[in-house]
Amino acid sequence: FLCTSLVFLSHLLSHHHISQTDYAPYFYDNGPNSNNGNMALLNLSEDTPKGTQIYVLNGTDPEGQPVKYGMTFEPGSKEYFRVHPKSGAVTLIEELDREAQDEIEVFVSISDGLNKVTEKVSVFVMDANDERPQFQNMPSIVDVPENTTSGNSIYKVQAVDRDTGSGGSVTYFLQSSEPSTKFAIDHHSGVLRIKPGETLDYEKSRTHFITVVAKDGGGIYKGKHQVMSSSATLTINVIDTQDTPPVFVGTPYFGYVYEVSSPVSIHHNTTSMHLFCTSFDGWKGISIPHHWSKCSQYIYSGADGVFAINKTSGCIILKVYPADLRREVYNIKVKALEVSPEAKRLDFAVTTVTIRVVDLNNHPPTFFGENGPQNVFELTMYEHPPEGEFLRGLKITVNDSDQGSNAKFHLRLVGPGRMLRVVPQTVLNEAQVTVLVEDSAAMDFEKSQFLTFKLLAVEIDTPERFSATADIIIHLLDTNDNAPKFSSDFYITWIPENSPGGSSVVSVTATDPDSGLWGVVKYSIYGSGADLFLIQPDSGIIYTQPWASLDAEVKSKYNFYVKAEDTDGKYSLAEVFVTIMDLNDHSPAFNENSLEKTMVIGAPVKIEAIDEDAEEPNNVIEYSIMKSDPDDIFNIDADTGEIKLKPYIKSMDIVQNITNHKDCTWSVVVQAKDRGSPSFSTTTVVKIDITEATQLKGPLTSFLMKSRENPLQLLGLISGVIIIMVLVTVFISTIIYMRNVKSNKILPSRRIIKRKRKPRRQDDFQQPFREEHYGGKFRNEDLESPSADNINFNNNVKVCSHRVPPSPPNVPVMPPPLPTHYRHGERGWTVPTVSASVASKTKKRSHRGKDNPVNTALVSELKLRLEQKNMANRY
Question: Quick one: three-class SS letters along 198-231?
Answer without folding.
Answer: CCCCCCCCCEEEEEEEEEECCEEECCEEECCEEE
